[in-house]
Design brief:
Length: about 325
């Protein structure tokens, strides 16, 4: 039965019952109205309103639950769907809402996968160009500077040596950026080695101390899952340096019964009630691509803990 007719019939039933009581009951209304009659009418009206409100509350309760779900839902943080309870139209409405959310999440996952795939391809291209074009150019400049410095007078030769050192530092920085854009060690040596290389790189250019525990019995994972874990660990370390101002980070990747568990915990300023930035939103999007659960909470050290729970999948199995 449509919601309109259900509410109409509920109200009609209450009004008919009240009318029958007035018609068939012993109570009458005098002119002028007596106090006792006014009290009886007031009590009857109150009972009618209470009954009507109770019936409407029971009937519309599923709509209130649906309204709360609509205002709190976040496509990046999947939550249990509202139960399709209630009568006829209400249950159908909740079912339609759940199907709409499923469709939106599927479409978002597809578009996000395409965007992140394009992003990774662009990173590979930029890294390759930095290595092949800019890197080779700076290497040639270093060789020319070295040749000129050998035949230059002493004062000029010293200045050329300083220019060499600056150029060499720039070349090293370009190689470091290229490695961050394209973690070649991930494809060649696997995830644990890539994480160790990432930690070495971070600690070599910052004052951050990273304590790591990388399990030796990690479950088999496909290339996309390994890349997601690597990027989330990379973002967690980057946030600890840039935003949290942490001095120490614990990075752990262990096997758990349902898959793998990544933790990046720092002793920085913490997240408090700050809004999630683009970095955390990006981590959530990556986690959704492989069906993993991501939580960002306060850590025991007073900073922030990023935790990624990756479901167990065989290599080659699609997320």
């Amino acid at each position: 039965m449509p919601l309109f007719w259900r509410i109409f019939l509920l109200n009609a039933a209450v009004l008919v019952a009240a009318t029958m009581v007035l018609l068939l009951g012993p109570v009458t209304v005098s002119t002028p109205v007596l106090l006792t009659e006014a009290l009886v009418l007031a009590v009857g009206l109150a009972l009618m309103l209470v009954a009507n409100a109770a019936l409407l509350r029971v009937g519309l309760a599923p709509l209130h639950r649906l309204s709360r779900a609509m205002t709190t839902i976040d496509l990046l943080q999947p939550a249990p769907r509202p139960i399709a309870a209630g009568h006829a139209g209400i249950a159908n409405l909740i079912t339609a809402f759940n199907k709409m959310i499923d469709r939106l999440e599927a479409e978002r996952a597809t578009s996000t996968a395409r965007a992140l795939s394009a992003q990774e391809d662009e990173r590979r291209r930029v890294a390759q160009e930095l290595h092949d074009e800019v890197g080779q150019t700076l290497t040639a400049v270093l060789l020319q500077l070295d040749q000129v410095a050998r035949h230059a007078p002493a004062p000029l030769s010293e200045q050329l040596r300083q220019v060499q050192e600056t150029t060499r530092a720039s070349l090293d920085e370009i190689h470091r950026i290229a490695r961050r854009l394209r973690p070649g060690v991930l494809e060649q040596l696997g995830l644990p080695s890539a994480l160790k290389a990432l930690i070495t790189e971070v600690t070599g250019h910052t004052d951050l101390t990273v304590h790591h525990r990388l399990g030796q019995d990690l479950p088999p994972m496909n290339a996309e899952t390994e890349l997601v874990i690597y990027r989330i660990a990379q973002e967690g370390l980057t946030n600890a340096v840039r935003h949290a101002r942490a001095t120490s980070v614990e990075l752990s990747l262990q096997r758990i019964p349902e898959g793998a568990d990544l933790r990046v915990s720092d002793n920085g300023r913490g997240i408090a009630d700050a809004r999630e930035g683009a970095g955390i939103r990006g981590m959530r999007e990556r986690a959704l691509l492989i069906g993993a659960g991501l939580t960002v909470t306060g850590s025991a050290a007073g900073g922030t803990e990023v935790r990624l729970r990756v479901p167990l999948r065989e290599k080659g199995e699609p997320p």
